Amino acid sequence: MADSSDDAVKTQRSVQSVEVGGRLLLTLAAHAAPMTLKDLAAQADMPASRAHPYLVSFGRLGLVSQDAVSGRYALGPAALQLGLAALHQCEPVRAAEPVAEALASSTGLAVAVAVWGNFGPTVVRLFEARQPLHVSMRAGTVMSPFGTATGRAFAAVMRPEPLLQLMSATALGEPTQTLDDASLAPHQAHIAQAQHEYAAHGCTRAVGRPIPGINAFSAPAFDHDGTPAIVLTLLGHQDHVPADWTSATAAAVKQAAVEVSYRLGYRPR
Length: 269
Hints:
The protein has helices at 4-29, 37-43, 48-61, 77-89, 92-107, 149-157, 160-172, 181-201, 248-263, and strands spanning 64-66, 73-75, 110-117, 120-127, 204-207, 214-222, 228-237. With 269 residues, it is an alpha+beta fold. The strands form 2 sheets. It has a 5-stranded antiparallel beta sheet, sandwiched between helices. A two-stranded antiparallel sheet has the order 1-2. The longest helix is centred in the first third of the chain and has 26 residues, at 4-29. It is elongated and about 65 Å long. Residues 1-13 and 171-179 have low confidence and may be disordered.
């Protein structure tokens, strides 16, 4: 009779087997076009003779399909169902929270998670700094769309229509009305400036405004179809958050946004 150590070995082999087969599925997911067995195995870092039995099993489960003419492999209908289920279960704020919390913990700085709400950029979660900041920001705070790093991060990557509609409603007090082109021109200039800032640096920043002595860097995260879902903002006293675009602070918030995007299923084209 096998002892407990044998059971542990068998369990470990079973987990390893899943990981090996999973590499094939992840490789297929990373490619838009079907793949030959040779290319698929090579990119999954295994011999074709080892990959083939996994593909047969995945085919029986509907996770992989094989073209009858070309013999190329692609993800199957069951993989599509799993992906759709994951999208339904993946709520952007829930995906962002552990990343934002880890960012706050590793830097000791405050981190805000914001979404685009009915009134513009809205903070939905705030992780406090190790040394509390005296700022009037909390869950529910609506940020200026152009006067804050958070707002400009949204302005840089979202369609301009919602921004211009918001500015029209704010200016006129009537959401159904619209401003003429001349009145919208300053807002369009702000959008272009935010887009340029993000294109050049991969994030936006606020230096001493709207809160004197407080600097902030913001970066957007995208969902599976490339729509901006949330913005992460890292903020702190200017002594702890240098304004340099190449600072560790700027790099940290950009990397955190990349991680959230990955969790939401975004893959850069």
